[in-house]
Design brief:
The protein is α/β, with parallel strands linked by helices and about 550 residues long. It contains 19 helices and 18 strands. It is elongated and about 90 Å long.
Length: about 550
């Protein structure tokens, strides 16, 4: 069971989020992003469906971003099931999904010391998973329940089934110890092994004993990282049989682990512990997790960093050949020192995912919130940036290039103008062996432009007043500063932009035609992925020629 697409509206952090084109080969989906970027809100959507399936759900308002608006959760799976939930209306019956379709764990699952002194202290049902946290911000207390189940099975095997000691060790201890060796290493002195699992009896806590070197260590005295790994392994042993065709969503599995162990843990869980027909979603900004996901052919990476989720957002799996995926782990402030001999370009908002497909040698693209943040990153530094042209005149661009040599301005209004450029579409359709009439498309653009150009002109002057160029103190009193203020210099440049839009010469009007907002109705650009349009040779050559 694999997720391929997700659409969330008015849900927790998201106004309108699309996650698209997750390959069905993705056994692992790694969600990266800074703290507070919205990653855990995605897992809340999984838990909402989990609650509905299990019929223990009562309140949609908790999951709504705006209480008065409609909430919608749509998830598509590789088995042709499409679940659509809108408040209390389920357009596709949840009966299509089995009760064990989802299994999640919050990041609050650490148990510093064992507390139970006898078996049977809590009443819970593993198959119903009714000991799980009510919400994803709650503490996950399933660890001691897992231990109780395993120790109970061991007692049953010994006294009821006469199972041999070797068979018991093979089923429980040997599997854990092999995982420990794969994760922590097998060097003498640091090799971790579990040697005893004795149930809580006679008023004493369970005796879970480990060996490291010549030392014997009770569970309570393991390091936080060792406890984290043991917690996860015990959970898979005790509950894995119930979830053989499921979506696992485990938050921050990398807690308390160094980079090498992060890598080893994710590899071990994905390749040796996750059932064959399952998909693991996990959240992290750890370098070890990113490196494993980058190398694995069965992994996809989704980047939530620096996205304004108050606006509609579309996310695709990252290009794993790009070094941009390391940005969240190392921090953009450290990129210049980490990649000393590489070109680092800051780009606007979600444009990074498209520039990454260029696969330029010694080049990294880093997301910034918007044009102004790109400008701030580039100004007075050795870093570089790429920004939309927007409503700049040709003369504006010449002046900006002279003052800010590391800032590169697109030749057209925005990156969408490149995607839907006649030459780019011509290559796209040719690669698909489909007919494309370039002349007809340009005529359609001219007609569409002439219908909307007066509406576009209304906002140009005010829009230009938000541009950050020449706002530094050294430009006070100079005409350059007035180009982007409510001054005559601004009006003069606006007049030039108006003339571009009035022209029916393609290269004149197209450079200031907002293709990301207009002309969406044209038949030639329907049902085409921007990702596909960013992978053409024409797009690559156009961008390379601009930044050289």
């Amino acid at each position: 069971m694999k997720i391929t697409n997700i659409h969330l509206q008015n849900f927790r952090r998201f106004t309108d989020l699309h996650i698209q084109n997750i390959p069905i080969t993705s056994k692992l989906v790694l969600v990266i992003g800074s703290n507070g970027s919205g990653k855990s809100s995605l897992f809340d959507a999984f838990e909402l469906l989990n609650k509905i399936i299990r019929k223990d759900f009562s309140d949609f308002d908790y999951f709504k971003k705006i209480k008065e608006n409609l909430l919608n959760v749509n998830i598509k799976f590789d088995n042709d099931i499409n679940i659509d939930v809108s408040n209390k209306t389920m357009y596709n019956p949840m009966a299509n999904l089995a009760k064990n379709s989802f299994y999640g764990r919050t990041s609050f699952r650490q148990i510093p010391r064992l507390t139970r002194t006898s078996l049977g202290q809590n009443n819970f049902d593993f198959e119903l998973d009714n000991d799980r946290p009510r919400f994803f911000i709650d503490k996950d207390n399933r660890f001691e329940n897992d231990l109780e189940k395993i120790t109970g099975e061991i007692l049953k095997a010994v006294f009821e089934e006469n199972t041999s000691t070797d068979a018991i060790k093979q089923k429980y201890l040997s599997k854990i110890n092999l995982a420990f060796e794969n994760i922590f290493g097998g060097k003498n002195g640091t090799k971790l092994q579990i040697t005893q699992i004795i149930p809580p009896l006679d008023g004493k806590v369970a005796q879970i004993i480990f060996k490291k070197g010549i030392s014997e260590i009770h569970y309570d005295y393991l390091s936080a990282g060792e406890k984290e790994v043991f917690n996860l392994l015990i959970n898979f042993i005790s509950r894995g049989d119930y979830y053989q065709d499921s979506i696992y969503f485990l938050d921050e599995m990398d807690l308390h682990l160094n980079t090498k162990i992060q890598y080893n843990l994710l590899k071990e869980i994905t390749e040796n512990w996750l059932p064959k027909n399952c998909q693991l979603w996990t959240i992290s900004h750890a370098l070890g997790f990113i490196e494993y996901a980058k190398q694995s052919q069965e992994a996809s990476i989704l980047d939530f960093d620096d996205l304004d989720f108050d606006l509609p957002q579309v996310i695709f799996p990252e290009n794993k050949e790009s070094k941009d995926i390391y940005e969240i782990a190392v921090g953009r402030d450290f990129l210049p020192s980490l990649f000393k001999n590489m070109n680092i370009y800051f780009v606007e908002n979600t444009d990074k995912q498209y520039y990454a497909h260029l696969n330029l040698e010694n080049t990294i693209f880093v997301s910034a919130h918007n044009r102004n943040q790109v400008y701030q990153q580039v100004n007075n530094t050795k870093l570089k940036g790429i920004v939309d042209r927007d409503f700049l005149s040709d003369d504006d661009i010449l002046e900006i290039k002279k003052e800010y040599p590391n800032l590169f301005i697109l030749g057209y209004y925005s990156i969408e103008n490149y995607f839907y450029h006649p030459d780019n579409l011509a290559e796209y359709y040719k690669n698909k062996n489909e007919i494309f009439d370039k002349t007809l498309y340009i005529n359609d653009l001219i007609n569409a432009k002439n219908e909307i150009k007066e509406n576009i002109k209304v906002d140009i002057k005010n829009a230009r007043c938000s541009y950050p160029y020449f706002a530094e103190p050294e430009y006070n009193g100079k005409p350059l500063q007035n180009r982007f203020k409510n001054k005559s210099e601004n009006s003069e440049e606006c007049t030039k932009v108006f003339k571009y839009l009035d022209s029916d010469v393609f290269e004149d009007f197209y450079k200031c035609l907002p293709m990301k907002d207009y002309c969406k109705h044209l038949a030639q650009r329907q049902n085409i992925s921007k990702t596909d349009l960013s992978k053409t040779n024409w797009f690559k050559n156009a961008i390379v020629s601009m930044i050289q």
